[in-house]
Specification:
The protein contains 20 helices and 19 strands. The strands form five sheets. The chain has an eight-stranded mixed β-sheet, with helices on both faces.
Length: 504
């Protein structure tokens, strides 16, 4: 594990002020580097940014970019013109070698959801867009901003809450987001070094301090319960626990399963728990059933599988993540064999990745939705998560007869597509497609398309079906009997929205 000491946050406010004054922000980086170089950073390619900062001369912004984002040495006099250099040296943000200074940590500007100028602090070269990408084999390394962390931040429910827990905080990205809407934030990590980085991230971002606790899973918080629990855990299914930031140290997907199963008892009524995770696709076992078995009693759940990789793709991804492909070929082959041996022993044929959301309801009949949706979505999705569970509540409370008495409107920005050969009198099928949120698409028959098209809240579902039956010369009773299932699906997937009527 890394033993490098971390900076102290004693002068973080002064350092933050200097960074903001220099324009060392997400917007400032885009202006300085230009779109191509800025995009290249997300691919861990730094040459375009190095060229752009040379063009930026010795100004404060170019100096800060070279120091903290590209991790290049700069002359002390340039650093002193961009920031309170003596305080940064005293606190440990910089180290001096002769006439030059070097950054001791990676600092990445990060734009908050409401335009906040935040900074994520992590180990050198371990932020996406850092000097060397991740590619680290050091056990206790603490990563910065990555795709997984921004995905979790985007799907998290952002209603005001009294208490929030960021379990496995890493560099503190989720805790930072939580400070915007939670009165009290607790962050935990098995790696004490990660808690040090979280403290720096919060301080440099001008955010309130959080309660920081060391330990695994829920052990550090005892019996405490929360309104919101979030975790981007070390979910990688690997042979052993070599890298703290990614390997959970339990067999197979047991860490994710344990996290989900134990979360229910830690949620306050109405509270949400949201995680990213990997899960095994085991020979002879339905992965949907595997995940349903994880859901704790008293909780509704929405589990979305976003991607699946076969075991060879999965092993190669994480071997490269740690830089193992740069080692001796024989050593790389041995590690690759270890991964495949582990998967064979567990009869694992592929690995799924996705989101898991729990809501504490204590309902007699919990709603557990497990689905696969690998298509593009529109982040942030926190409001879509809230809407999903609100729809589950509505459907749970309304039987088929109640649905027929209800009034609905077609959600905005839903479009209809007719699919069939050119010149055909009737389409083979009709597709309703959302342009917001999950961006779902669903096939409907002629009745479903007609029903959705006239839903404006003025007529009950039953009266609309009666009119359709008359137009199609069908028995209205038969149509009423067979259509509620289709209405239920359109409501569940967010195409139709119930309209509250006077007195309801």
């Amino acid at each position: 594990m890394s033993t490098t000491s971390l900076p102290t946050p004693d002068h973080a406010a002064e350092l933050r002020s200097a960074m903001l004054a220099a324009g060392f922000t997400a917007d400032g980086l885009l202006d300085l580097l230009g779109a191509p170089a800025y995009a290249a950073l997300a691919r861990s390619e730094t040459v375009p940014a190095l060229r752009a900062t040379r063009g930026g001369g010795d100004g404060p912004l170019a100096t800060l970019v070279r120091l903290f984002l590209l991790q290049q040495p700069v002359p002390y006099v340039h650093a002193a013109s961009a920031m309170p250099a003596e305080a940064a040296l005293a606190d440990g943000w910089l180290r001096r070698e002769g006439d030059e200074v070097h950054a001791t940590v990676d600092v990445r500007p990060y734009g908050g959801p409401d335009g906040e100028d935040w900074f994520i602090v992590s180990d050198l070269g371990c932020a996406v867009g850092g000097a060397d990408g991740i590619g680290s084999r050091e056990e206790g390394v603490v990563l910065g901003v990555g795709g997984a962390s921004t995905t979790l931040a985007g799907i998290t429910v952002r209603t005001p809450v009294g208490s929030a827990l960021d379990l496995g905080t890493g560099s503190g990205i989720q805790a930072l987001h939580a400070t915007r809407h939670a009165t009290r934030v607790t962050a935990t990590d098995v790696n004490p070094r990660a808690l040090g980085f979280t403290r720096l991230t919060l301080a440099l971002s001008g955010a309130p301090a959080a309660e920081l606790l060391t330990g695994s899973l829920f052990e550090p918080v005892g019996d405490a319960s929360y309104d919101l629990i979030v975790s981007n855990p070390p979910f990688v299914i690997s042979p052993g626990a070599r890298l703290t930031y990614r390997d959970g140290g339990m067999g197979g997907d047991d860490l994710c399963r344990t996290l989900v199963q134990e979360a229910g008892a830690r949620l306050n009524p109405g509270g949400y728990a949201q995680f990213l995770g990997n899960w095994q696709h085991v020979e002879g076992e339905d992965w949907h059933d595997r995940l349903r078995s994880w859901v704790p009693r008293g909780c509704d759940a929405w589990i979305v599988q976003r991607d699946v990789q076969d075991v060879t793709q999965y092993a190669e991804l994480w071997l490269r993540d740690a830089g193992d492909h740069r080692t001796d070929p024989a050593e790389y082959a041995r590690r690759y064999e270890d991964w495949l041996d582990e998967f064979d022993a567990r009869k694992t044929r592929s690995v799924g990745f996705g989101w898991i959301t729990l809501r504490r309801t204590d309902a007699a009949e919990p709603s557990i939705v497990v689905e696969e949706w690998p298509h593009t979505v529109e982040q942030p999705l926190g409001d879509a998560v809230l809407a999903h569970f609100a729809r589950q509540d509505y459907l749970r409370e309304h039987d088929d007869a109640a649905l027929l008495e209800a009034h609905f409107t077609l959600v905005e920005e839903v479009v209809q597509e007719q699919v069939g050969p050119p010149g055909a009198e009737d389409p083979e099928h009709v597709v309703l497609r959302q342009n917001r949120g999950m961006r779902r698409a669903t096939k409907v028959d002629t009745v479903g398309a007609g029903f959705a098209g006239v839903c404006d809240g003025s007529l009950s579902a039953g009266r609309i079906l009666d009119a359709i039956a008359q137009l199609m010369q069908e028995d209205p009773v038969v149509l009423r009997d067979r259509t509620p299932e289709a209405i239920r699906l359109l409501v569940e997937q967010g195409f139709l929205e119930p309209v509250a009527r006077p007195g309801q």
